[in-house]
Structures are given as C-alpha cells and as structure tokens.
Design goal:
It is a single chain. Helices cover 60% and strands 4% of the residues. By secondary structure, it is mainly alpha-helical. A hairpin with a 2-residue loop joins strand 1 and strand 2. The radius of gyration is 23 Å and the shape is globular. It starts with a helix and ends in a 52-residue tail after the last helix.
Length: 478
C-alpha cells in the first residue's frame, strides 16, 4: 500500500522557494507598498520590512566565505554617509537628526546595499522588476477606478485625480509607482529576453500609460518621457527613431483628431510649457522655495542648515509670494491645508540642508552609479533587459528629483529603484562556495546566464544561500 507522500508529492515548491529565498523579503516590501497608506508621516509596514531585508542580507553575507563588496562598490555606496552624518549634527532637534539620518541612510545606502548583496543574477533581478510592474498595475487599476468613479483626489473641484492607495495626502505616490513600472517594463521589452517576456512587458507598459496620465503629475510625465526616450536610444538608434515617429503620429491623431483626453488632462499637459509665462500657484511656490534653498545655502555653504531643518529656515528666507501650503482633499478625506516642508527639488533640498558637502557626496554617488551602470550596459549582451531597466530606473529618479524629493509613504520605492541600479552597477559575483548547495538544474538554464544553474554546461551546482557562480565570459558581467 503506497503512502500519501508517494502518491501525492507535496515538496515540489521547495526548490523554487529556496532559489527565490534571497529576494522574497524584497518582494514583500513591494507587496506592502500596495496597501493603503496612513495619513501620518510615521514608518509604514514597507519601511519596517526594509529592516528585515537588511537583517536577511547581513545573515546571508556572514554565511559566505568571501568579501561581500568590491572596493568600488564600498566607496560608491558609502560616500553618502559622509555628507548625511555631518549634516545630521546641524539638525534643529535631536529627534530631527535621528529620523533624518535614518531615512536618508535607508533610501540611499542601506536598501541599495542590501539589494547588491541579495540579488545574485538575472533571475533575481527579473523577479524584482516584475514585482515592481505588478505593483504598478495594481496601483494603476485603483487609480483608473478612482478617475471613473470620482473617488480620487480633488482636481479642479472634482475628485478625479488618480492617487491609488496612497490617498490625497500623497498625490505623487501612485504616479511614482506607475512610472517605475513603465520604466521597468520598457527595459524588459527592449532587452534580449524571451519573446513572450517582450510582448507581455510592452502590453503592460502601454496599459500603464493610462493611469500615469490620470495622475496629473507633470513631473512624472516629463521624467518618464525622458527616461523611456533614453532607453530607446540605448537599445538602438534606428528603433528609437521609428518609435518616436509612431508615438508622435498617434498623439496627433488621438489628441488632435479625436480629442482623446479630457479638458482637465489637456489643460494640465499644456501648462507644462506655460511655467515661465503665467504659472499657477503650485509653480510659484516651487520657484519661491528654490530661491529660499539657494539663500540658505549661501548662508551655510559647506554643510547646510542641517537635516530636516528646511521648514525651520523657510519663512526667514522665502519671499511673500509663497503660499501657506497646498490644498489636499479627496473622497473620504476632508479638506486640509498641507504645509510646504520641502522645496520639491531633491538637489535644492541637499544644497540647503547638507550644503556642498552633501551635494557632492550624495549626488556624486548617484552620478558614479550612473557611470558604472552605463559602462556595464555596453558589455552585457545577454543581460540587456535588466541593464536597460536598471539604468532607466536610475535615470528616472535623477530626472524626477528636479521636481520632487523624498518624503511620504512612497519613499521606500526610491530605495528600491536605487537598489536595482546599485546591483547592476556594483554587483561582483564571486566563486566562493556556499554552505547550502542545490542539485544541478540543467533544465532551467538560460543561455548566457550561468547564474541560473551553475556553469554554462549545466553540471555545476548552484548556490542557493551564498555567492553566485561567476560568469565564464567577462563580456557578460551578470
């Protein structure tokens, strides 16, 4: 008589879960970003899970008999600590110093560092990228429903602004998530992956353009257009020219010929070119806070006014053109006046609060990541999809920082985007053995990606908890 275990095998998911174990905490962080956000500015479940990600990365690193980071990676990822730590000493209160230091280190140092240590190869990176895409599709679906049913944030007197689960208090949250999904999917579609992946990624990216438009976020529109254009150029100039021509023709036909897009959307799009002539109050406030940031830096040029000290110095440096705050209202949330606590420009925020030291160390780290990412892109023909997505996420953040800064429940997404970029820029595979080795997985190998089952011939074991096996060809850094 056969036993139940012999007739109904129940252990088949274990190897797959073991292979995906390093990225499961990252996927949990992404999933928690889809939960409704609270109105306060405290730590979110996604922020708390980032702590588990760091612990998981530390445990795995200690179990490996190898140096976890190259010298370049240690310098690039550790450089922001200098400016952040120095500016923390100038915070107005000890509480501001602690919370500001924790937030900056989380987003720009610790989460990217953990992702460099956890992501072992292309399979792990694709899991994270598709996770970001899934989050974007979920938030986008919620946003479209809000627009159609009038249950979103207030815009021109109607509750039609798509904000996803982030609510009216974080109107940029859904736009950032959806834009990150578009950029990730564009990289996956333009890369050298399987045809099914390219088609699915292209369809999903096109679908996400609808909620991105309904977010009414001009900064996200600009950053996404610039980034996708850069990804197309990196993938090939000829294809980029064809896509640009097709998009331009479709835009003329849909908007000009059929009038697709409501009047509010068309007015918002037109306002992008009118910021220098007759800007609305939000643009006036932004220009005023930028001027105040420069004035703060002029008085404290080296280390700035201190972390989270912009609100304390704002009124003494801003002109009378600055309003008292921005209006937020939505279905289910009463009208409230949200104070302007930052210049809505990450570079101006660094300059004012951290001075030249912070701008050089923090922004200099971003520039170094971009240079390393672009250099590796040229020599990785079999990893082009992940490379384009990683470079795109970094470019999107750097462009979007011209119109936004960190803050709010969606800030964790910024750390994940920098983490993907840091993995591609700084990850260095090692041949050190792992304490847990799986049997050969020759059937799951992918040509050009030795991390999927060991060596290229499929006979070497693949480490599940330790270091990845190094590629046999230096032309493929992944």
């Amino acid at each position: 008589m056969s036993t139940p275990s012999a007739s109904v095998p129940l252990a088949w998911p274990v190897p797959a879960l073991q292979r995906a174990a390093p990225v499961l905490p990252l996927l949990a962080v992404i999933a928690l970003l889809g939960l409704p956000a609270e109105t306060d500015s405290g730590a979110t479940p996604a922020d708390l899970t980032c702590g588990l990600v760091l612990l998981w990365a530390a445990v795995r690193t200690l179990r490996q008999a190898q140096r976890p980071l190259t010298r370049t990676a240690a310098v690039v990822l550790g450089l922001p600590v200098v400016g952040i730590a120095v500016s923390a000493t100038g915070a107005v209160t000890p509480g501001d110093a602690v919370t500001g230091l924790a937030r900056y280190l989380q987003v720009f140092v610790l989460v990217p560092l953990a992702m460099v240590l956890l992501l072992r190869g292309l399979r792990d990176a694709r899991l994270v990228l598709w996770g970001l895409a899934g989050l974007a599709l979920w938030q986008g679906a919620v946003g479209v429903h809000q627009y159609l049913t009038g249950t979103g944030a207030s815009y021109q007197g109607a509750y039609i602004r798509a904000v996803g689960t982030f609510g009216p208090h974080d109107v940029m949250g859904m736009a950032s998530v959806v834009a990150a999904g578009v950029v990730s999917l564009t990289g996956l579609a333009l890369g050298t992956g399987a045809r099914r992946q390219r088609v699915a990624a292209a369809v999903c990216a096109a679908a996400l353009l609808v909620p991105l438009a309904l977010s009414f976020s001009r900064g996200s529109w600009i950053a996404t257009a610039v980034t996708c254009g850069a990804q197309l150029l990196l993938a090939g100039v000829r294809r980029a020219v064809k896509v640009f021509a097709a998009v331009a023709a479709a835009s003329v036909v849909l908007v000009g010929g059929f009038g697709v897009g409501g009047s509010a959307l068309q007015e918002r799009l037109t306002s992008i070119t009118q910021v220098a002539g007759a800007p609305d109050q939000s643009v006036v406030d932004r220009y005023t806070m930028w001027a105040a940031s420069i004035d703060m830096w002029d008085e404290h040029p080296v280390r700035g006014v201190g972390l989270k000290a912009f609100p304390a110095y704002r009124d003494s440096h801003a002109s009378l053109a600055l309003s008292s705050g921005s209006d937020t209202e939505g279905d289910g949330q009463a009208f409230r006046r949200q104070p302007l606590l930052s210049p809505h420009n990450m570079y101006m925020l660094l300059l004012s609060e951290q001075g030249l030291l912070g701008l050089v160390t923090v922004a200099g780290s971003w520039l170094a990541l971009l240079v390393c990412a672009l250099r590796r892109l040229r020599g990785a023909p079999h990893a082009r999809d992940c490379a384009l997505a990683a470079c795109g996420l970094l470019v999107w953040q750097l462009v979007n920082f011209l119109y936004s800064d960190i803050g709010g429940p969606s800030t964790t997404l910024t750390g994940l985007c920098f983490g993907v970029a840091a993995w591609w820029s700084c990850h260095q595979p090692s041949a050190a053995p792992s304490w847990l080795v799986a049997p050969p997985l020759s059937n799951s190998l992918e040509r050009g990606d030795p991390h999927r089952g060991g060596a290229a011939d499929g006979h070497s074991p693949v480490p599940l908890w330790g270091a990845a096996v190094p590629p046999a060809d230096e032309s493929d850094p992944r």
